[in-house]
Amino acid sequence: MIRTWIFQSTPTDFEIEEFIASRRSTCLWRVSRHGAEIAVGDHVFLWRAKGRGTTEGGIFGRAEVVDIARCRIPDRVQRDFWKKTADRHSVEPRALVGSILILEPKNLIRRSWLADDPLAGGLAILSQPQGTNFRVTDEQAARLDRLWCSVGQPWSRSELVIVLGAYGKSGKPLDGRLTDAAIRDAAATIGRTVQQMAGKARVFADLTHSLSGALPIGTLLERKVWEEWSGTKLGATASSSTPREKEQ
After folding, report:
1. What is the pTM for the complete model shown?
2. Which of 12, 91, 138, 202 is 20 to 30 Å from the Cα of 160, by its Cα?
3. What is the DSSP string of 222-236?
4. Residue 206: pLDDT above 50?
5. pLDDT tens readout for residues 93-150
6. Could you give the CA distance from residue 227 to residue 28 in angstroms, rounded to a whole number?
């Protein structure tokens, strides 16, 4: 049975992103627990903890286990990226991960997004962040897969229609608050975070409050979908200054 894990790295201990950027396709990862369960072929989401002066922690990559946890020291290249001399030569259980994929820094799947997610909010790393290895349930893994696949991708028409469905359920001018149950429920049906859904809800609320369309609110696709949903034609004056359609 293939399992899914989160493997965590702490910037104050090891420069993981710099190490991977040095064109290394594999990485020996400390295993602080679950060593007997981590198997070849298991899926891994790579998590960077928040370090001193760094941005928020979260998922920055994914990989696959290519060798089980064994007691060994870091390889010669990897040693240079450990901050403490003792860590460069310590013999500890380490699993080898490969097939590493890394997100652009701006696309980090942030810890705060996951903490507020209706499906991923129960991740073990959120409640007990100490350690390097964390189990991920099948439901959580499916959710992380969907979030991963949507990272950096433009919104589709069908996704915007789902946001509008949440807008309609609110029964009032929607302000996109994260506490809105309709927004949270809608987020669970697609690969978008609650924060992203709320942002689109705010766009549709702004369009509702500015029916003349005098302001360049939303992307071209957002305005078109809103017009179809509302049956109201926005003012033509803003169409030439509509923001780019791939805006997130």
Report:
1. 0.84
2. 138
3. HHHHHHHHHT-PPPG
4. yes
5. 999 999 999 999 889 999 999 998 989 999 999 999 999 999 999 999 999 999 999 9
6. 53
Q: 18-44, pLDDT tens digit by residue?
A: 888 887 789 999 999 999 999 999 999
Distance CA 245, CA 248 (A): 9
CB-based contact 148:114 (threshold 8 Å): no
Query: 246 in a domain, yes or no?
Result: no
> Residues 137, 56: one domain?
yes
CATH of residue 78: 3.10.590
Domain count, the chain: 2
Check whether residue 109 and residue 167 sit in a common domain: no
Rounded Cα distance between 34 and 20, Å, is 24
- Bridge partners, residue 27, by sequence: 97
* 63 lies in the same domain as 125: yes
| Alpha carbon distance 239, 171 (integer Å) | 28
Residues sharing a CB contact under 8 Å with residue 69, sequence separation 6 or more, in sequence order: 31, 35, 36, 38, 93, 94, 95
Under 8 Å between Cβ of 6 and 133:
yes
Distance CA 17, CA 49 (A): 12
Q: Which domain holds residue 15?
A: 4-144
Nearest to 68 by CA among 120, 23, 5, 121: 5
Residues 200, 123 within the same domain: no
Domain assignment present for residue 149? The answer is: no
Assess whether 172 and 130 both reside in one domain: no
pLDDT tens-digit profile of 153-186?
999 999 999 988 887 765 554 444 445 788 888 8
